[in-house]
Design brief:
Layout: E1 2-6, E2 11-16, E3 21-27, E4 36-40, E5 46-50, H1 69-72, E6 74-82, E7 89-98, E8 101-107, E9 115-121, H2 130-133, E10 139-146, H3 147-155, E11 160-172, E12 177-190, E13 198-204, E14 207-212, E15 218-223, E16 229-233, H4 234-242, E17 246-250, E18 253-256, H5 258-261, E19 262-266, E20 273-278, E21 283-288, E22 293-298, E23 304-309, E24 314-319, E25 331-336, E26 352-358, E27 365-372, H6 384-388, E28 413-417, E29 420-428, E30 431-433, E31 436-441, E32 445-452, E33 461-465, E34 473-475, E35 480-485, E36 491-496, E37 509-515, E38 524-526, H7 534-539
The structure holds copper (II) ion.
The site of copper (II) ion has 7 residues, from loops.
Length: about 550
Amino acid sequence: MGFWKCQQYPRVARIDLKTFRTSEIIELPNSGGNHSSPFITENTEYVVAGTRFSVPPDDKNGDVPINTYKQNFKGTISFISVAKEDGKMDIAFQIQCPGFNFDLSQAGKGVSHGWFFFSCYNTEQANTLLEVNASQKDKDFIMAVNWKKAEEYLKAGKGRKQAVRYAHNTYNESTHSATSEIRTEVTVLDSKELKDICYFFPCPKSPHGCDVSPTGEYIVGSGKLAALIPVFSFDKLQKAIAAKDYIGEFEGIPILKYESVLYGEVKKPGLGPLHTEFDNKGSAYTSMFVSSEVVKWNIKDLKVVDRVPTYYSVGHLCVAGGDTKNPNGKYMVAYDKITKDRYLPTGPELSQSAQLYDISGDKMQLILDFPTIGEPHYAQIVPADIIKNNSLKFFKMEENKNPYFSNGEGTTKVVRAGNRIDVYMTAIRSHLTPDNIEGIRMGDEVYFHVTNLEQDWDVPHGFAIKGAANAELLVMPGETQTLKWNPDKVGIFPMYCTDFCSALHQEMTGYIRVSPPGSNVPLLFSTGKNLPAADSAAKK
Ligand SMILES: [Cu+2]
């Protein structure tokens, strides 16, 4: 399975990589954005999400002046548990933190298993003109979270039950449909009161990537406005905590001394470090946004060993397995944001671009430069076998539990109940059954339940009808999907398959006749034969 985030409506999705479909979506209460997400702990105990924007908690009166940010706004980190057997998600707990912006994060692993690291910016707690006001301090923070300690507090009943409202949606592979459940409570641990969960350590300036080396020993902060790359030591972090080597605290959270946690700095790497990935030979690769390059450096001696240009303004990187304990280390992709002069112009917006490098040797070698869409954060490259050997080819008809399933053309029908019409329809190369329907009236709500009867790989059928408010259906082999349609005028409406399926795909069409309210045209449906001309005969 994979995990995906939505920032605008703070939520996390679980994607089933057998089908490449969304299995589950869980909303995040107490969150105003969802940028440092979704990051998983070493054994997928949790999917973790940090809010980008701090906001007043959901159970507080949020009708407060925006300039009371410092008093009223809070940050939230969500720990979503992932069930071992089926991957089901559940918000195990949230940690309430100071009102900062949480940017990116990564779980500890190996020696640092049990910890999580988040880059924070706007530690100035500005509420306006952040480009200036959130760039005042020379250093912001990385927040280290001891989530094993948080679990202890949770077990000891130290969490506060908070009234919230959020949706938890799950998709059922047997019924091919989703259910939405509204949850009304979440358990919150307060970082101010519960000591030993959160610690801050300074990181220069407005850090973006916060990346943990394969052994878990080193945490690399990438300050977007910095001209060096700080590398922190997990071992030194533990020693500094034990020695209470604090320079102060922020809302009850201790701030550790920079030098006490620092392993060392990569000097003169370029400008604007953004994100670091790792290979299997002790090297790190950092994208440099401002100087448009990738810099390779040695994790132990922090010396820069190679650099290659990117085209241009590289954002995130992806080394195969580069954020895991066992990077594959053969390939790296650089994802870029600005491509002026690189490709033929396409109006005001140009394509983004990416470069694929071979990183198996000492020097990085550009092997492909290509246009792409977007600049993915923490894209993943995994060995093909993981996906290929588990991929589903089609849904078995005998396992279809959708209540509107038609198990063959013989069971198709059109049923009226008041002004609701249910069309039980099938699709198989290259016709719909039924493909002629009469007796629909203005004011009817029509539900097309389309079952794709194919039992073969890569033969979806689509379904669209003129005037539908939803674009179309795409129905996988063996699956049933429903499209609701409210006819908006009297007349004849074509319907058709929208996914090229055979040489006779263009012939995979049909017609619906819509009559005025109160019409006596009988409800009739067929395929391959003409319906009796009921009303025209009556007129004569
Ligand atoms: Cu088709």
